Amino acid sequence: MKRREHAAEGGAGRSRKRRVPLVKLAHARSGDKGDTANVGLIALKPEYYPILVKHVTAARVARHFKGMISGPVERYELPNLHALNFLLHGALDGGGTISLKTDAQGKVFSTALLRLELELPR
Amino acid sequence: MKPQPASVRIAAGQGFWGDWLEAPYRQVTGGPVDYLMMDYLAEVTMSILQKQKSRDPSLGYAKDFIPLMERILPIAAERRIKITANAGGVNPRGCAQAVADTARRLRLGGKRRIGVVSGDDLLGRLDGLLARGHELRNLDTGRPLSDVRDRVLSANAYLGAWPVVEALRGGADVVVTGRVTDTGLTLAPMIHAFGWRPDAWDLLAAGTVAGHTIECGAQCSGGNCLVDWERIPDLANVGYPIVDAAPDGTFEIFKHPGTGGRISVAGVTEQLVYEMGNPAEYITPDCIADFTTIRLQQRGKDRVRVSGVRGRPATDKLKVSIGYFYGYKAVGTLVYAWPDAYEKARAADRILRQRLADLGLRFEAVLTEFVGADATHGPLARAAAPPDHLPEVQLRIGVRSPDRAAVERFTREIAPLILNGPPSVTGFAGGRPKPEEIVAYWPALLEKHVVEPCVEVVEV
Predict the structure, then answer these.
(1) Which of B45, B176, B199, B309 has the fewest CB atoms within 10 Å of its CB?
(2) Which domain holds residue B348?
(3) A positions 11-70 inside 8 Å of B (CB)
(4) Could you give the number of structural domains in chain B?
(5) Contact A19, A117 (CB under 8 A)
(6) Residues β-bridged to residue B401
């Protein structure tokens, strides 16, 4: 796995952290239930799963999608599949047939979540 | 009693109405299978079909199921492959009749039995149900159905596997259903083959997981698969998934030899989490399946074993899918070219919005997206890739209103921008957008005992 590493905000001198794009740690698939999009986030390797559990919290995901969803974010854990399931409420402009969005069924919220960058200890 | 088979193979042929027409044919010819399962119904499909039926009482089912049966029935008869499909929509009897006519034309008379599962259609019973205190409150908003009663176009309870099992026990070779759950169409053959009991919750949950895994067709065999996508071989020739189930509830997902695509733990996992709510409570009419108990294991190339599934007793309610008239919408697009493509599209959006306001048109929603810049990932995309130097941007603007006239007027405001708005604009060959009726989805719950599934088996 190629891993692009950056100095965290504030400069390398001050921080002992590195920024890792979530897309390097996980893959994902998303879908819809009414006005809620779900994103299943799956660790690319089992050893990445604890990193996802610790760092990709519901609060972190809600911050990531700020301005894109109108409701809360829920998170469920599936340790057996090394996966997390996120429900993004109010994500689809009413959802289904009501929605005017290109992505009315939330199909690419999956890769939108993978744009998240984690700050991990070096 | 007939001996219990050691395994049963159930092949997915359609993941939705409009899926690849070649898939079911390839599933019945590509290698040995016992069942062909085809899922046709999405939430909104029932309303579309109800509308067709109101114009012509002989319609209201997935019409392209009939030419498909014409192609497949002789092969299925020869190879003793049974078929389960919810292609019946809001007229399963009409659909079964058309299948029977086709079978006779193919000289399969006397050799085929067709099962029909109905009783899911509640449209004619709604007022009685409401009068008896069934409020059919919207599961998302909590509002009672009486809010929109006069606009309801369709109402169907989700039936589970058991009526399909009854049809199979009655000797049906083809089971045509109304609104039976996607998972029930796969679970039913397993119950029938292995004689699973109605309270064997772990087994029923396992069959439900099997159904969920293959209900979207190739989406678990390499299609729409993100992980390592560019190395998934030969999607042009993609093999649709097949469940190879054992009486103990374990099963393997595989595909026919020589087909493209890929069946891997990662790909099956993607499908398992698709459209998932609370993974510990996947609720169907048949059971509650706990997806946090599923074990996956790669068993050689393109073969994944699924085991460990635990289930709990079904609830005493059925989900009801109600379609109701909501209003109108229209979406118009124009394409702006370099230089300043994004800025030109933004300017056009501002101009259009001002004109709509000056006309005094009111909309419930006006939504603008810039395809190529931010349509799918919104501000996240703009932050990652500033849209200043894009070669082209599509302006996509949509409106929604209860007032058809307002939406109609909007559709006439797009084309003028070509000559009286920002420059370097093209991509309008499709003409003026058409106002579209919105049929919205109203999910509700209803006590199970109120719904009476009806099962018939007719000899062709």
Answers:
(1) B199
(2) 326-441
(3) 27-36, 38, 40, 42, 44, 64-65, 67-68
(4) 2
(5) yes
(6) B328
Domain boundary among B291, B315, B339: B315
- On whether the CB atoms of residues B422 and B344 are closer than 8 A, the answer is yes
- B277 and A27: CB-CB below 8 Å? no
Residue B360 sits in the same domain as residue B215: no
Q: Name the token pair of B343.
A: 């800025």
Task: Give pLDDT tens digits for B322-339.
Answer: 999 999 999 999 999 999
Residue B189 falls inside a structural domain: yes
Residues in chain A within 8 Å Cβ distance of B140 = 34-36
User: Does residue B110 sit in the same domain as residue B204?
Assistant: yes
**Domain presence at residue B231:** yes
Q: How far apart are CA B235 and CA B238, in angstroms?
A: 5
For B145, residues 6+ apart whose C-beta sits below 8 A from its C-beta are: B126, B130, B135, B136, B137, B138, B152, B322, B442, B444
| Together in a domain, B101 and B172 | yes
Nearest CB among A68, A81, A94 relative to B378 is that of A68
How large is the average pLDDT for residues A11-24? 80
Q: In which band, very low, low, confident or very high, does the pLDDT at A28 lie, cut at 50, 70 and 90?
A: very high
Residue B426 covered by a domain? yes
> Which domains does chain A show, CATH number per domain?
24-116 (3.30.70)
- Contact state of A85 with B279 under an 8 Å Cβ cutoff: yes
Any idea how long chain A is? 122
- In this complex, do A100 and B367 lie within 8 Å of one another by their Cβ atoms? yes
Helix axes B162-169, B182-194, angle to 10 degrees: 50
Give Cβ neighbours of residue B142 (< 8 Å, ≥ 6 apart).
none
**Shared domain check, B429 and B305:** no
Chain A residue numbers with beta carbons less than 8 Å from the beta carbon of B291 are: 78, 81
Residue in B276, B293, B369 closest to A80 by CB: B293
Shortest Cα distance from A20 to chain B (angstroms)? 15
Q: What are phi and psi of A80, to 5 degrees?
A: -65, -30
How far A78 CA lies from chain B's nearest CA (Å)?
A: 5
Q: Say yes or no: B106 and B197 in one domain.
A: yes
Pick from A29, A78, A108: CB nearest B292: A78
Which residue of B270, B308, B398 is in closest CB contact with A100?
A: B398
> Do B280 and B212 belong together in one domain?
yes
- First-residue to last-residue Cα distance in chain A: 17
Q: Do B305 and B340 have their domain in common?
A: no
B321 found inside a domain: no
Interface size, chain A vs chain B, as Cβ–Cβ contacts under 8 Å: 127
The pair of three-digit structure tokens given for residue B24, joined into one six-digit string: 């079911």
Last residue of a domain, one of B281, B315, B349: B315
Residue B431 confidence (pLDDT) = 84
Average pLDDT over residues A73-90: 98
pTM for the whole structure: 0.95
Q: Identify the segments of chain B with pLDDT beneath 70.
A: 1-2
* B438:A68 CB<8 A: no
